[in-house]
Every structure is written in structure tokens, then in C-alpha cells.
């Protein structure tokens, strides 16, 4: 799994908490003055605090952790402008969008092979696209 950039996550956390410094962000969570600078130095994403902040402020964890979509989560992952309206398909597209952010090319190829084996129509669609 790809490592997240703690600096970017912490910067978004400061934006959501409406604070400008690492010390102020630490105080927001009731932590010591060096907690946030320690996270930055170790490139450690504070997942628990991200969840707390997302719940408290109603922001998207996708945006907070990954920087994708919008702060309020109003942008779902879209394959194209004719995005599916079926809830099952929406969930799968969202999952694949998130999943692919942290996967290697080999893992993506593996998943595509599995999908082609499980869904013959997908294999046919792939074959037609390669022509």
C-alpha cells in the first residue's frame, strides 16, 4: 500500500480545524505542543484524529486523507460524465477509485484478470477494445 503524505494530510487538517500552526492543531485535539511536528517529522498520518475531525466537522475522509473529491464529499468518483445511477454500481466505482489509489500496477492487472474471469461480458468488452 502506498504511504500517505503526512504533510498534505496535516495541512488539510489545519484547514478544517481553522488553525494555522502545528501547535494550534495539537491544542485542537488536546495534545502537547510537539505532537503535530512529530507526526510531520516521522511522516505519520494521525488516523484516529482524522476520523475525529471528519466526524466533528462533517468532512470527507477521502478528501482529508487522500486529497480526492471535495471537502464535503459531494464529488463521487466518476468514470465519465454519464456516471451510473444504480447504487450498486456507484458503490463499486467508488471502491475501485479508492482501491486503485494505493495499489501497484501488478495488483490492478490482477484485479482486472479476476474480473474478466468472473464476468464474461467484461472479458468480451476488453477484447473488443483491444482490436
Can you walk through the features of this model?
With 131 residues, the chain is mainly α. It has two domains: 6-66, lambda repressor-like DNA-binding domains (434 Repressor (Amino-terminal Domain), Orthogonal Bundle), CATH 1.10.260.40; 87-130. Helices cover 64% and strands 0% of the residues. The longest helix is centred in the C-terminal third of the chain and has 15 residues, at 87-101. The model is unreliable at 76-80 (pLDDT under 50).
Question: Notable features of this structure?
Answer:
131 residues; mainly alpha; 434 Repressor (Amino-terminal Domain); 2 domains; 8 helices; 64% helix; 0% strand
What is the 3D shape? elongated
**Helicity, as a percent range:** 55-70%
Q: How would you name the oligomeric state of the polypeptide chains in this document?
A: single chain
What pattern of helices and strands is seen along the backbone? Answer: HHHHHHHH
Give the percentage of residues in beta strands: under 5%
**CATH topology descriptor of the largest domain:** 434 Repressor (Amino-terminal Domain)
- Give the CATH class of the largest domain: Mainly Alpha
Name the CATH homologous superfamily of the largest domain: lambda repressor-like DNA-binding domains
How many domains would you count in the coordinates?
2
Low-confidence stretches: 76-80
- Summed over residues and divided by their number, the pLDDT gives a mean of 85
The total of helices stands at 8
